[in-house]
Amino acid sequence: MTTPSHDTRLPAQARTEAQAQAPTQPQTRPSSETPPEPSRTGELFRTEALAEQQDRWLGTVLLVPKLSHTLYTALAAVLVLGVLGLFAFGEYTRKARLSGWLAPEQGLIKIIAPQSGVLTQVPAHE
Fold first, then answer.
1. What is the rounded CA–CA span in Å between residue 22 and residue 16?
2. Which of 44, 52, 90, 110 has the highest local Cβ count within 10 Å?
3. Would the pTM count as exceeding 0.90?
């Protein structure tokens, strides 16, 4: 059985040697920008993400509607108002069915032809 070898160096020495052996990586952030600190309370999400979730109840960003949608809406509103106006102010004529003859108030006249003839056409219809 072998015993594991123990490192007798101090932790600070081991850290500086590991940093010296690690290849240097180029920095991706500008030096003026500091990385966000992790939450000290041990939360799973960043505070920015939690703040975004809290503001979600306000809704999403509304985009400006297209001109055609505005025109269709205006046309529909005018049509609805026209129909409502027709129901409110419109009138119609009552219709009644009667049987009988329609006669003028002055009465009827008799027309007699001076000569006899044959009737070939009657343009009037009943």
1. 10
2. 52
3. no
